[in-house]
Design brief:
- The chain has one domain (2-55).
- 23% of the residues lie in helices and 10% in strands.
- The protein is built from two helices and two strands, in the order H-H-E-E.
- The chain has a two-stranded antiparallel sheet with strand order 1-2.
- The longest helix has 9 residues, at 32-40.
- It is extended.
- The relative contact order is 0.11.
Length: 61
């Protein structure tokens, strides 16, 4: 899957793809302030808000 994702391009640029082997604890969630920052970067399709989401970069290039 990582190899396939690394071959994608958008406007001539490849994504940064890395495998995380870190084990996360179950039941942990972000605080509201942190989640609001993530939500601010999401652009949802009004017709498919749960399934089609564009994620804007955290730092504009």
């Amino acid at each position: 899957m990582l190899g396939w994702a690394a071959t994608m391009t958008w406007k001539g640029r490849h994504p940064v793809v890395a495998l995380s082997r870190e084990i996360y604890a179950k039941g942990i969630s972000r605080i509201k302030k942190a989640m609001d920052q993530v939500e601010a970067r999401l652009l949802r399709n009004p017709e498919l808000p749960k399934w089609e989401i564009l994620i804007q970069p955290a730092c504009p290039i």
